[in-house]
Amino acid sequence: MTFFLVSSVIKIIVVFTVIMVGVALLTLAERRICAWMQDRLGPNRVGPQGLLQPAADGLKNLLKEETLPAQADKVLFLLAPAMSFVPALLTFAVIPFATPLPTPWGDVEMVVANLPVGFLYILAFGSLGVYGIVLAGWASNNKYSLLGGLRASAQMISYEIAMGMSTVAVLLLAGNVTLSEVVARQAQSIWFVFPLSLAYFLFIVAAFAETNRLPFDLPEAEGELIAGYHTEYSAMKFSMFYIAEYSNMVTASALMTTLFFGGWDIPFTHWDNTPPWSPLKTVLTLGMFSLKVIGFLFVYIWVRWTLPRFRYDQLMALGWKVMLPLALAYVTVIATAIWILHEQLGWTYGTRFALALFGLNVLLAIPLFFVLDRGRIVAGSVAEERA
Amino acid sequence: MAGTLVLFWAFAGLALASALGCITRRSPVASALWLVVTLFALAALFVLLDAQFIAVLQLLVYAGAIMVLFLFVIMLLNLGHPGPMDVKGPVGVGTAFLLGGVLLFQLWILRQAAPPASIQLPPGSVARLQQEQGLVGAVARPLFDTYLIPFEITSLLLLAALVGAVVLAKRRL
């Protein structure tokens, strides 16, 4: 019991610190990568290669004046940044990030809390993050902020459903809602991204919408809403929203890694996922996990500086008319396929099983992109005007 | 065991206090937020009962989706600012106290009566069920097996309500 408490407290402190430092570096990475894509230099003055820029930004935000709009709801205005920040950090608690670490007192699981309902916990807390944005928009008592808050609540609810439905396929294949079991299942054989490619596609789109990143950053939309829900915020409260956004990105990337890319699994070898555990295995798997997460974070930044923003009606049409029916149809097809392979043919999950499902996904993807689309999404509003 | 009891009283107190906040606040937004806190405290009580699946569903469905929609509607209709008192006149106050008294009386009756033996499970059976079927299976199996027909009828009811709402909201389709 004491060992459990001590190891949990240490894990909480370490994970919290790593995420905070990671978020700080991520803001720098975003600006440098954006500069690189736009053929600029980006912030490179503070420290070597601008590495101390986040520290300078943090100091600036701490020393800036905190403003409070006269007509704002004071309690909620102060509470809103914290309410968007806390769920973003809490969700990371159930993600397994390495193999267990052996210590003289017993094995320590490399996950803050190995909940038996881990996956649902992430969906539940992920859906709570919207409160911060909605309340910030409402409490500011500003028309633009209110519009931002309204958009956030509608967007989050719409894409949450598609996100939940797309992950049902993963849970069907894993047969469990515990994230460590999901990882273990993938470590034994092929990563779920192959047998469930379309689910992954739906999930990554929904994850972009859930984290309010371009092309789905309508709640802030600086061109039309100034900065949406955080127009009235200044100094540290403003940067709390930023920390929340980046922590959400880290969590979403970690989730994609865990659900579709084998979590901490090192590909092409079974050496890393069988006991006896050793510190070397923990370090290597942790490195593998971090590498995958950083890869997804790069995709996030890449997409942000590549794609333009959706219009609001396009966002809603995509969510309800494309993503949701697609996710529902996909779940039925995959459930049937798994039932046939598992119950009728008696196969267990392995290379043959995964490849059969991958073939099915390829077959489904062809009509999806060339027949169902009919230029609606790809051509966007231009085609609609012509029609 | 003592730790569990302390947690139980803490969350039970929180649930009661926030429920009081929910019905006494004049601003609809504050009221809705207190309701979210109540739902949270209830989820914590479910965890203490070893029903983690129900607890997470409580957060996911009620706190995460339904209450966000409530807030959305409150903000869309701009009801956010407290209006005049709803309970008007001595008749209204009297009715409110009378109904409250009936509820208290019901609680007192419930306190007297022991739950019937037919709905009590033998000790340890829940833990065994979860061991055999998993946390989700223990809820899903009865829902989709034993009570499949009532479950499907409920979904039809919800669908009817949805269609009705669309028809009411959109005069011309």
Question: Percent of residues of chain B in helical segments?
Answer: over 70%
Output mean pLDDT of chain B: 83
CA distance, first residue to last residue of chain A: 68 Å
- How many discrete domains of chain A? 1
**Helix-strand string of chain A:** HHHEEHHHHHHHHHHHH
Seen as an oligomer or otherwise, the chain set is heterodimer
Structure description:
The complex is a heterodimer of chains A (387) and B (173). Chain A is 68% helix and 2% strand. Chain A is mainly alpha-helical. Chain A has one domain. In chain A, helix 3 runs antiparallel to helix 5 (130-139), helix 5 packs antiparallel against helix 6 and helix 8 runs antiparallel to helix 12. Chain A starts with a helix and ends with a helix. By secondary structure, chain B is mostly helical. The A-B interface holds A 73, 76, 115-117, 120-121, 123-128, 130-131, 134-135, 137-138, 146, 149-150, 153-154, 156-157, 160, 176-177 and B 29-30, 33, 36, 52-53, 56-57, 59-60, 63-65, 68-69, 71-72, 75-76, 80, 134-136.
